[in-house]
Design brief:
The structure holds two protein chains of two kinds. Chain A is mostly helical. Chain A is built from 14 helices and no strands. Helices cover 32% and strands 31% of the residues of chain B. In chain B, a hairpin with a 2-residue loop joins strand 9 and strand 10. Classes of the chains: A mainly alpha, B alpha/beta.
């Protein structure tokens, strides 16, 4: 072997990824500040910062502490969950179209939650709804995992996810159809549309442990996803436990997306858009995509939620409606631009 | 010194024995060629020895230690495996693709070290892919991608290299180049086990050939012994033309023989 190799080439983009992550982090902080200062009652930024610690006019303190701060924190958690879940699912299933919404995870989590609302279990324990939502997400990802373990082609996985999602939506519709009273029905519908309105610190406390665990599991799956881009056998020959990586991503996505859907309803397409925007910037490396996708997802949800409050027309738009309005055409464009094949 | 021993390795795939009682004993500095017709069990033998397939019977030992006793990363550092097909799923650059070969050497969250960068540059140089280090691996021609995949396996810098049909999609120039490279790696002390269909390359570049037919080892030894006409007829159903050039034997499959039975 010749050691007289000219200067080692830069194993590029390690540093640029750090910069990208830092920039997205700053963007998230800025959007958090915007989120707590923008609303029906305008409060100057300085007062907002004080109010967050309980200093200042009583109304400001109430508005910031009980309304806006939980809302911003939830936007951050949900966006991060969806963004990193999309990136990890795409890495695991080796397909840029995989996303919690597309492969039925969000809809299954929604069904889990709707079952709890429908049968009134939510009154018994505040954990019933999130646990049921996570179970729904877990069943869906588990089925996908079983298919993947039988070496089903990726297209089969995606289509199976679409079918599971379809079933979950139809069962949800059944619940609406059989709904005993209009009040329960409208509760389910509004919840399904996805929103961060009128959320409190109770929801933050409820979702945070599951979101943090789920996002954490996904963030540390990078090495395995990196190796998996060579296919399963090559990944295993590089010392990566593919079985463990699968379990890790499935549990992580179930926890993060299940908890997010439980507190905010279904918010689509963020897991698709965030990784896709960033992939070229990180040299298409699945591991480097994870943290930036979490931050980008958070920035998207925060921005969408700020936008909703800035558009003062009629009733407030639902978050899920806004992300789908932007995300669905993007998804369509992505499919068209992929026709060439190479996963672009 | 590296020593790889397989004894009675048997693997079931889809309910039948894809490999039946496979034996091999090979050491540092050798190039061992696995040859045989399609479905003869060549790839299965390679995967079973690399611990990528479950064995029904038999054992594989590396330096007299059962291969199961090695940790996943420990084995990955000692044995590099180049699968068929050269799958790449994202349009990452060739350099980054080759860099994946360094994963067994990197800590869980560590980036590539200076040693990794040197290993990658060296592997790319040897596999002749440095010229397109920055191009997307998914946009390469079949032959370029095959060499990039080989560079990925070389970057592991393992003492054992398993290569499953590394020259399958290469032009004659690069077929010779890759075989010379494998020979050179053996010269540096690597144990190379390579699956080949090209009998001329097999006879010229391998120290030893192992001929498989229907999952069983039917012949093992020096190329001139294994590639005897009656063996070619038996294992491949072809009549071979044996010639000599530059004092080296070559074998050309010439015509199909009528299958008996």
């Amino acid at each position: 072997m010749s050691l007289a190799v000219a200067p080692p080439p830069v194993m590029s983009a390690h540093r640029p990824t750090l910069w990208l992550t830092a920039a997205l982090g700053v963007l998230c902080v800025a959007l958090m500040l915007a989120s707590v200062s923008i609303g029906y009652v305008p409060i100057p930024l300085g007062d907002v910062a004080l109010a967050a610690f309980g200093i200042g006019a009583e109304t400001d303190v109430v508005i910031v502490q009980e309304l806006r701060l939980p809302r911003a924190l939830l936007a951050l958690m949900i966006g991060a969950s969806l963004g990193v879940s999309g990136a990890a699912l795409q890495g695991l299933l080796l397909n840029p179209l995989a996303e919690p919404g597309v492969v039925g995870v969000s809809a299954s989590a929604g069904l889990g939650a709707v079952i709890v609302i429908y049968f009134g279990f939510a009154d018994h324990s505040s954990y019933a709804l999130p646990l049921s939502a996570m179970a729904g997400a877990g069943i869906c990802t588990g089925v996908l995992w079983l298919l993947a373990a039988r070496n089903a082609p990726t297209l089969t996985l995606i289509l199976a996810g679409v079918a599971i999602g379809g079933l979950a939506v139809s069962l949800t519709s059944l619940a609406l159809n059989l709904s005993p009273n209009p009040w329960a029905m409208s509760e389910i519908i509004f919840w399904l549309l996805g929103s961060l309105r009128d959320r409190t610190f109770d929801e933050v406390k409820l979702a945070a442990p599951f979101v943090l665990t789920g996002v954490g599991l996904l963030l540390v799956s990078g090495r395995a996803l990196e190796a998996l881009s060579l296919g399963e056998e090559a990944a295993r020959s590089l010392g990566v436990s593919v079985a463990r990586a699968r379990a890790q991503v499935i549990v992580g996505v179930s926890l993060a997306v299940g908890a997010s859907v439980a507190v905010a309803g279904s918010v689509g397409f963020v897991g698709l858009v965030a990784p896709h925007l960033l992939r070229p910037l990180v040299g298409w490396a699945p591991a480097r995509l994870l943290a930036p996708s979490a931050l980008c997802g958070a920035a998207i949800i925060l921005a969408a939620d700020v936008l909703i409050r800035l558009i003062a027309v009629g009733p407030e738009l639902h978050l899920g409606v806004v992300t789908s309005l932007v995300g669905a055409p993007f998804f369509f464009w992505l499919i068209l631009s992929m026709r060439g094949g190479q996963g672009r | 010194m590296t020593r790889l021993r397989a004894r009675g390795v048997t693997v079931d795939l889809g309910g039948r024995a894809a490999l039946d009682g496979f034996d091999l004993d090979a050491g540092a500095g050798e190039v061992v060629g696995l040859i045989g017709a399609n479905g003869a069990g060549k790839s299965t033998a390679l995967k079973a020895m690399a611990r990528l397939l479950r064995r029904r019977a038999g054992e594989v030992r590396l330096d007299d230690r059962p291969i199961e006793r090695f940790g996943a990363r420990e084995l990955a550092r000692r044995l590099a495996y180049l699968p068929q097909g050269h799958q790449v799923n994202w349009p990452m650059s060739v350099e980054r693709l080759v860099g994946l070969g360094r994963l067994p050497w990197r800590g869980p969250f560590a980036g590539p070290s200076a040693a990794d960068a040197i290993a990658v540059a060296d592997a790319m140089e040897r596999a002749d892919v440095s010229r397109f280090a920055g191009r997307a691996a998914t946009e390469l021609s079949g032959g370029e991608r095959a060499r990039a995949a080989l560079a990925r396996a070389l970057a592991v810098e393992a003492e054992i290299l398993f290569a499953d049909e590394p020259v399958a999609s290469l032009d004659p120039y690069h077929q010779l180049q890759v075989m010379e490279l494998l020979r050179g790696a053996a010269g540096d002390g690597t144990l190379v086990i390579v699956v080949l269909h090209d009998l001329t390359l097999a006879s010229r570049f391998c120290d030893r050939l192992v001929l498989l037919a229907e999952g069983r080892l039917v012949a093992e030894g020096a190329p001139s012994e294994v590639l005897a006409p009656e063996r070619l007829a038996q294992a491949y159903g072809v009549e071979g033309f044996v010639g000599e050039h530059d004092a080296e034997r070559f074998v050309l499959p010439w015509r199909r023989l009528a299958r008996s039975g």
